[in-house]
Design goal:
The structure holds three protein chains of three kinds.
Chain A lengths: L1 H17 L9 E5 L2 E2 L3 E3 L5 E2 L1 H13 L3 E5 L5 H6 L5 E7 L2 H6 L1 E16 L15 E5 L3 H9 L5 E5 L2 H10 L4 E5 H9 L6 E18 L5 H14 L2 H9 L6
Parallel strand pairs in A: 1-5, 1-6, 8-9, 8-10
Antiparallel strand pairs in A: 2-3, 3-4, 6-11, 7-10, 7-11
Helix pairs in contact in A: 2-8, 2-9
Chain B lengths: L1 H4 L1 H33 L4 H16 L2 H22 L10 H27 L2 H9 L4 H31 L11 H12 L2 H30 L7
Helix pairs in contact in B: 2-3, 2-5, 2-8, 3-5, 4-5, 5-7, 6-7, 7-9, 8-9
Chain C lengths: L2 H40 L4 H16 L2 H11 L4 H5 L3 H4 L2 H27 L2 H9 L4 H31 L11 H12 L2 H30 L8
The chains are: A alpha/beta, B mainly alpha, C mainly alpha.
Chain lengths: 251, 228, 229
């Protein structure tokens, strides 16, 4: 049919213009957020850095395949993976049941837990009663955010932010009474200049928080990543990277 | 001075903002002309499509359009492409998504500007051109379009100034434009006021430059006219 | 397209739409009130009086709304004296930051519309008032302002719709307006196409509502200009 073939040509031309797709070259595209220090962040000259980035690079070296690291905002991570914008997410993503409905995960590459943080001058405990009416913040689309939505939205004012950076900004400005986040990045932030007047509140919980690499369902890249992961743990590369960021094992 | 440390980054972001605005202006103008053609067409379906397009664009937030294109367009495009037997992944990067979203927005408003401009040209001119024996395509090229340009320019200039500011929204989907670079700098320095104010003044500078350019284009397009 | 998801989350989107509606209603009103002194300053004969609203309008019309809202929300909080001031209880809430930003922003646009209307009132009407011996205040209050309001209704309606579109930026400072609600739902369901589509329909409905409201308002307010037959 003439019209159909015309449309087909037009379509191919337009895809040629907009497609910068590189699937053909067997290159693995890995996404990270770049706003979750010390796991992934952007340094002053605009480069991606952090634990996740180091792990990604080590894995690529082991797999012996060219990789490309791309930045992706957190709340678009899973939709973008599903539409094949990239092939894997190495961005401190917890393995949850909700996410497993949409995507697959590799074996864990570290584990963590959730923990509240707040100002040192603010002497409140984090029981549900004392958080009543308080303003609590977390990043949108994280397990911390979902935890707040599920458990606190009836008694406290829950605020969800686009980035963790924005959560810290509002913690410092005093808009937030407490914030909930993963324990490890908080640990790092509390050591810094801004975090100096803040502290952990209460113990960590949800310690079964397992961090894995998200991939599309049934994508063979999962096996390759698992093999590479086992290899860098076995040969000590993992321990070296771990030591760069934390004085204790986070595996 | 902290600002100076980030001058390179802000400059790179500004350049990206300019590229995004100019590319969207190009495609948006084409869309606007097509839209006006549809709105003024003698075919009812075309008129309906044109009307639907401008209504939707004028009623939906630009931010939502940007988000929709970025998250939705790949899915839709790939769905359409697979109908034609093309099953590869179609990439829509933030820049492309930004250009599509901003062109659509610009085009929706430009449709109305062009429509007004076409209608501002007295019918008598078309008639006299034709009575001189000009074909209708020649009439369009030599008589109508040059004047449409003149009538549409002030409106298009305004729309470009709006477009320039709307580019900031594309930072939300990760394009490294001025806004995004500013936010990154805020993350390092924790000085949001300093940096957002600096960004505001850079945008103001771009606005002033654009206004000067639009002004001189208007003067050029009006030469030969007797202006009281 | 998964319609069940849309139906399941429609009530929450409606909550978001309600917040959006309240945002534009309040900031549209405050903005209109702010616009009156701005517009009068703008047409003043004194250069100095003129230049202040000019600079204000130039700043708010020449910079992105996103920059403005971040300046108010994150920017002001940078300063200790702001955080210690009596205004902080308001400024710490994203709702008031959004209202402040949107009001200041839309005021700049409405002021220009009002100025245009004031300057388009035929000179004869001013002269007629003065001949009748009206004071300037009475003239503005009884004749010119009502006349200008009548002339600016369509343009003001457009501005309110632009404000509706701009209000989506409230989602960037944690407010759960229509867009914010949509993004939060997607964070849970990972269905951007469906939820954004639904949010778009809600926005269209609100803008239609505003258009209808203003055309009704214009017919009533400008009833005297209708042809008799």
């Amino acid at each position: 049919m003439k019209i159909k073939s015309f449309l087909r040509t037009a379509l191919l031309v337009s895809t040629a213009i907009i497609a910068v797709s590189s699937n053909a070259a067997d290159k693995i595209k890995i996404a990270t957020e770049g706003a979750w220090a010390p796991f992934n962040f952007i340094d002053q000259s605009g480069n991606l850095k952090g634990f996740d980035v180091d792990i990604a690079n080590a894995l690529c070296e082991k797999m012996d395949s060219p990789c490309e690291l791309v930045k992706q905002d957190w709340d678009g991570m899973i939709p973008a993976l599903m539409v094949r914008k990239f092939d894997a997410i190495i961005s401190s993503m917890s393995i949850t049941e909700d996410r497993l409905k949409k995507v697959d995960f590799t074996d864990k590459y570290y584990s963590g837990g959730l923990r509240f943080m707040g100002s040192k001058s603010n002497k409140l405990d984090i029981s549900k009663q004392s958080l009543k009416g308080k303003v609590i913040g977390a990043q949108r689309a994280t397990i911390a955010g979902l935890h707040l939505e599920n458990n606190y939205s009836d008694i406290a004012q829950v605020k969800l932010y686009d980035t963790q950076e924005a959560v810290y900004l509002d913690l410092v400005s005093g808009r937030l009474d407490v914030a909930l986040s993963d324990e490890l990045p908080t640990y790092d932030w509390l050591k810094g200049k801004d975090g100096a007047s803040f502290e952990f509140k209460g113990d960590s919980f949800a310690k079964n928080d397992i961090i894995g690499i998200a991939v599309r369902k049934n994508d063979p890249v999962k096996q390759k990543l698992n093999a590479a992961l086992a290899a860098i743990i076995a040969d000590g590369t993992y321990a070296d990277i771990n030591a760069k960021y934390f004085p204790f094992s986070i595996y | 001075m902290v600002l100076a440390d980030f001058a390179d980054q802000l400059l790179a972001g500004t350049w990206m903002t300019v590229q995004l605005a100019v590319t969207s202006l190009f495609f948006g103008t084409i869309l606007g002309l097509l839209g006006a053609g549809a709105r003024l067409s003698s075919l009812l379906p075309l008129r309906l499509i044109g009307g639907f397009y401008t209504t939707v664009i004028r009623g939906i937030p630009e931010l939502l359009v940007v988000l929709m294109i970025y998250f939705g367009a790949s899915v839709v495009l790939m769905g359409v492409a697979s109908q034609f037997g093309y099953d590869e992944y179609i990439e829509i990067n933030p820049f492309t998504a930004g250009v599509i979203a901003l062109s659509l927005t610009f085009g929706g408003y430009a449709t109305e500007v062009f429509r007004g401009a076409f209608q501002a040209i007295p019918e008598g001119q078309r008639e006299s051109a034709q009575s001189l024996g000009m074909t209708s395509s020649r009439t369009l090229h030599k008589v109508i379009l040059p004047q449409v340009w003149r009538y549409a320019l002030p409106g298009l200039g305004n729309l470009f100034l709006i477009l320039l500011k709307d580019t900031a929204l594309v930072s939300v989907i990760g394009l490294e434009d001025l806004m995004r670079k500013t936010t990154a700098a805020v993350g390092f320095t924790r000085e949001p006021f300093t940096f957002y104010l600096a960004a505001a003044f850079i945008y103001l500078g771009l606005t002033v430059i654009s206004m000067v350019a639009i002004h001189s284009m208007e003067r050029k397009s009006n030469r030969g006219l007797e202006v009281a | 397209m998964d319609w069940d998801i849309i139906i399941e989350y429609a009530p929450r989107l409606l909550d978001g739409a309600w917040l959006t509606f309240k945002l534009i209603l309040l900031s549209g009103t405050i903005g209109a009130l702010l616009a009156v002194p701005l517009a009068f300053g703008r047409i003043s004969e004194s250069y100095w009086v003129r230049s202040i609203p000019y600079a204000y309008i130039f700043f708010f019309r020449g910079t992105p709304l996103l920059v403005q809202i971040f300046l108010v929300y994150y920017g002001l909080a940078q300063f200790e004296f702001v955080r210690d001031s009596a205004l902080w209880p308001w400024l710490r809430q994203p709702w008031w930051c959004a209202i402040i930003t949107f009001s200041l922003h839309t005021a700049a646009y409405i002021a220009e519309i009002l100025r245009g209307a004031l300057q388009n009132i035929p000179k004869g009407e001013v002269e007629a008032c003065l001949t009748l011996g009206m004071s300037r205040l009475t003239m503005y209050r009884k004749v010119l302002l009502p006349r200008a309001f009548g002339m600016m209704i369509p343009a003001y309606g457009n501005e309110v719709i632009l404000m509706l579109k701009g209000s989506a930026l409230a989602s960037t400072i944690t407010l759960l307006d229509l867009t914010g609600m949509a993004r939060t739902i997607i964070a849970r369901t990972y269905t951007p196409v469906e939820i954004f589509f639904a949010a778009g329909v809600f926005y269209l409905a609100i803008s239609m509502l505003i258009m209808l409201l203003f055309s009704w308002f214009e017919r009533r307010y400008n009833a005297h200009q209708r042809p008799v037959m």
